[in-house]
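Let us work through a complete example step by step.
Step 1: write down the sequence.
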Amino acid sequence: MKSVLCLDVGSTWTKGALIGHDGSLLGTAQHRTTPPEVMNGIAAVAEAVGGDLSGALVCSSAGGGLRLAVVGQERMVSAEAGYRVALSAGAKVVHVAAGELDGAGVRALRESSPDVVLLVGGTDGGETRVLLHNAHRIAANRLRCPVVLAGNAHAGQEALATLHSTKRTVVPTDNVLPDVGELAPGPARRAIREVFLQHVIGGKGLSRGPRFRRMVRAVTPDAVLRGVSRLAATLASGEDSSGAVLVVDVGGATSDVYSAVSTVDDDTPRRTVELPADRRTVEGDLGMRWSAPGVVVEAAAERLLAPGEEAALTSAALDRAADVGWIPEAPQDVSVDARIASLAAVVALRRHMRLVEGRMGPKGAGLLVLSGGVFRHASPSTLDTVREVLSEDSVLRPILRHARVTVDTDYVLAPAGLLSDTGHPQAADHLLRTRLISPE
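Step 2: predict the structure and record it as tokens.
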């Protein structure tokens, strides 16, 4: 491999990293994303780092990323299985419906504005009524987004014909629940990713020509999750054999949490409806600017605030939500930002651990990675405070008791995921080892 340019095109920033053949980081740059022609910002980043666009590896979350709705048969089985598939597909689950869709259910599904609907239901050879009913409902209503059909194979052809009758994009794939208690997530995950790349990214009004759509290889969270999985494998191969990794990315509007607990290929069918080894959750009410008030509300609900802290922190959060471009300069404002970031991280991590049922292996996390501008630009003393808040939290303490905490200052997780997916795992491993496991 020669040097390769890895690009992450987000809604606000386009970030680039030039990676050497051995996985060394040769340079980084960023430029504001430039809709309606994102190629302008991409070209600026490429010029800044001296990278070649012709061989660039690109991921994107511009235009809101991948919004997924899951429609299943019974919430504790089909819909839950579909939701857990989405945990590792780089998608943000915006709606989950179970049972036969009625008028109110269709309206709620439409109002969630999904990019893709994952339609599941029934084991192979089992109940077909609910799956066929929901296929008819989706076909008959004004819901034009692509559908990934991953339900009972015995009803697959009829459901496919029903959905195709309205000339919508439908991608059939293997049942996510082929038998009772057996989860086979791999085919559905791959189908969701392909639908996003082929049918969604080009429809978000990000570029006038087809070049950008052809360049994009993954939705950004999917690339990051692949990087997190590779990081867990690299960690496990070293002196620390725990292999468990947690990443919390606190942004202006949302906080994302990623975890990887093993290097096992999770596409292998299992005899229980269990969690994927690598997973991601998105908290849309936790952020540093747009969602700062939500951080205070949820921190209060979780009893994380000191006596008398809520009123002052609420006022500060409302100010930040009213001026999302504001950058703190005074020490007191920086301190408040750090406090909001710490609380957002704690709440997001707590929610993630509840959803994944605390499954981080017998040793818990071996490495916790902090990501996002608030951490990347923080002073060493501020980061020490954040680490203390996280490690002393009563809920997180058992998970983080052996964890080393680091900051992804160069945003290398997405590039590592892109490299890993394109046949350069050794370069990905070297990048992660030198930047996150044993930074200089």
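Step 3: interpret the result. Residues 268-273 have pLDDT under 50 and may be disordered.
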